Amino acid sequence: MTIFDWLIVILYAVIVIGIGLWSNNQQTNTAEYFLGQHRIPWWAIGFSIIATSFSAASLLGGPGEGFTHGLLYLQLQLGDLI
Questions:
Q1: Mind listing the pLDDT tens digit for each residue in 8-59?
Q2: Taking Cα atoms as reference points, which of 70, 72, 36, 77 lies closest to residue 55?
Q3: In a 10 Å sphere around its CB, with 0-12 CB exposed, 13-18 middle and 19+ buried, how is residue 62 labelled?
Q4: How much of the chain is helix, strand and coil, in % rounded to 5?
Q5: Which of 77, 20, 23, 14 lies closest to 50 in space, CA to CA?
Q6: Whole-angstrom distance, CA of residue 12 vs CA of residue 27
């Protein structure tokens, strides 16, 4: 890797650590952190649930599973929307 690549990696690490330190000061206990102080709107929770189902395995393996199992796999994906 070149020096430019290392600078990008170091900059990214500094930003991530900075966000972590900043968010650490916003909560007083772990319940506030894990529950979002009960202030997260329903639509943000929904997007979070959908986003967790996307990964390289689902994007690359999903079409193969859909071809192999047909609508059975589609029902699993549509269930995320409900």
A1: 999 999 999 999 888 877 777 888 777 877 888 999 988 888 888 777 777 7
A2: 77
A3: middle
A4: 80, 0, 20
A5: 77
A6: 23
**What pTM value is reported for the model?**
0.47
**54 in Cβ contact with 80 (< 8 Å):** no
- Distance (Å, whole) CA 15 – CA 13: 5
Is 62 in contact with 77 (CB distance < 8 Å)?
yes
Q: Mapping DSSP to helix (H, G, I), strand (E, B) and coil, where does residue 80 land?
A: coil
Domains of the chain, by residue range, sit at 1-39, 41-82
DSSP secondary structure code for residue 2 in this structure = -
Tokens at 25, concatenated: 């000061």
